[in-house]
UniProtKB/TrEMBL annotation:
<feature type="binding site">
    <location>
        <position position="240"/>
    </location>
    <ligand>
        <name>ATP</name>
    </ligand>
</feature>
<dbReference type="InterPro" id="IPR036676">
    <property type="entry name" value="PurM-like_C_sf"/>
</dbReference>
<comment type="similarity">
    <text>Belongs to the thiamine-monophosphate kinase family.</text>
</comment>
<feature type="binding site">
    <location>
        <position position="87"/>
    </location>
    <ligand>
        <name>Mg(2+) 3</name>
    </ligand>
</feature>
<feature type="binding site">
    <location>
        <position position="58"/>
    </location>
    <ligand>
        <name>Mg(2+) 2</name>
    </ligand>
</feature>
<feature type="binding site">
    <location>
        <position position="42"/>
    </location>
    <ligand>
        <name>Mg(2+) 3</name>
    </ligand>
</feature>
<feature type="binding site">
    <location>
        <position position="58"/>
    </location>
    <ligand>
        <name>Mg(2+) 1</name>
    </ligand>
</feature>
<feature type="binding site">
    <location>
        <position position="87"/>
    </location>
    <ligand>
        <name>Mg(2+) 4</name>
    </ligand>
</feature>
<dbReference type="Pfam" id="PF00586">
    <property type="entry name" value="AIRS"/>
</dbReference>
<feature type="binding site">
    <location>
        <position position="343"/>
    </location>
    <ligand>
        <name>substrate</name>
    </ligand>
</feature>
<feature type="binding site">
    <location>
        <begin position="134"/>
        <end position="135"/>
    </location>
    <ligand>
        <name>ATP</name>
    </ligand>
</feature>
<dbReference type="GO" id="GO:0000287">
    <property type="term" value="F:magnesium ion binding"/>
</dbReference>
<keyword id="KW-0067">ATP-binding</keyword>
<feature type="binding site">
    <location>
        <position position="56"/>
    </location>
    <ligand>
        <name>Mg(2+) 4</name>
    </ligand>
</feature>
<dbReference type="InterPro" id="IPR016188">
    <property type="entry name" value="PurM-like_N"/>
</dbReference>
<feature type="binding site">
    <location>
        <position position="291"/>
    </location>
    <ligand>
        <name>substrate</name>
    </ligand>
</feature>
<dbReference type="GO" id="GO:0005524">
    <property type="term" value="F:ATP binding"/>
</dbReference>
Amino acid sequence: MLEDKNQQRTSLAELGEFGLINHITKYFKTENLSTIKAIGDDAAVLDASEKQTLVTTDLLIEGVHFDLSYMPLKHLGYKAVVTNLSDVYAMNGVAEQITVSLAVSNRFSLEAIEELYAGIQLACETYNVDLIGGDTTSSTKGMLISITAIGKVIKDEAVYRNTAKETDLIVVTGDLGAAYLGLQVLEREKQVFKVDPNNQPDLENYTYLIERQLKPEARKDVAGLLKELEIKPTSMIDVSDGLSSELFHICTQSKVGCKVYEDKLPLDPQVISACEEFELDSTMVALSGGEDYELLFTVAIADFDKIKGNPHFSIIGHVTPENQGLQLITRAGQEIGLKAQGWNSLDRQD
Ligand code: ADP
Ligand code: MG
């Protein structure tokens, strides 16, 4: 579906490991004062300061976490960084450095790795993080990328998953479900392409969905937005596996239950129309889709006036005592128990 624009093909063996590392890292500059020494020595050196350090890692494996038949390498590099940074922002922190470890088979050319690093670099510039190191090795099959993000948070201002309180409001940023539908669209086009490689996909009605799948953004802005409103969340998590699964993490760790209202779930119009087309329930998609990289957090009920009507935030429900469990209140007013992976549609009566 996506044509290979790289006509040139330089084999990685020609460069060797050190040649490759030098080549892919030479255009990276460091910007953060805490980066004392980046790439080039046995280890990077960071200034510790009086803040607390956040560290988070993700491992992505070709064929499991990404499919290069519709994921351009530049987007893959960008997304791999962004998904890590999202975890730092979900702790109420600021991301400052990343390391990138890469295993590639000889199927990949230098130009392919350059594309991957162009995406990594764009994400570094966009989010103001420094690439400070990594490791490079060969794999017998496919590509593996592991990224570690390092961030800072003011002492005792980290926001955890286990501190939601009964009666808190539950808030989510942005909208939900679009990245999952973007994946459905891309999977469908891949099947069409397999049958007829000359078929040019018409993706105009799905631009937002595809962008959310191929070029997600992390909510770096939310910490600042909340500070302006003088709100400190009582608990927070990023929406990577799906709203329902994240609600389970917060509720289980905080020993509380929740009520979430179906009619409050934020959906983009493209999500609603694509759900009709794919015959999917938009509530199911919002709850279980995943890869939204929005932030889900709880705030004290006293903050209601500060947050209501804010276009960045949707109040989708509230925290309840633990023994009430996790409930979805449908548009018809019915209570349905949430499952870690969405909800059981067979329970639904309306
Ligand atoms: P060592 O042998 O000490 O592990 P390497 O030769 O693997 O060192 O790496 C040399 C330098 O290049 C180190 O600073 C390392 O962090 C950095 N580096 C290696 N691979 C990558 C990569 N894929 N991306 C970014 N930096 C890398
Ligand atoms: Mg090494």
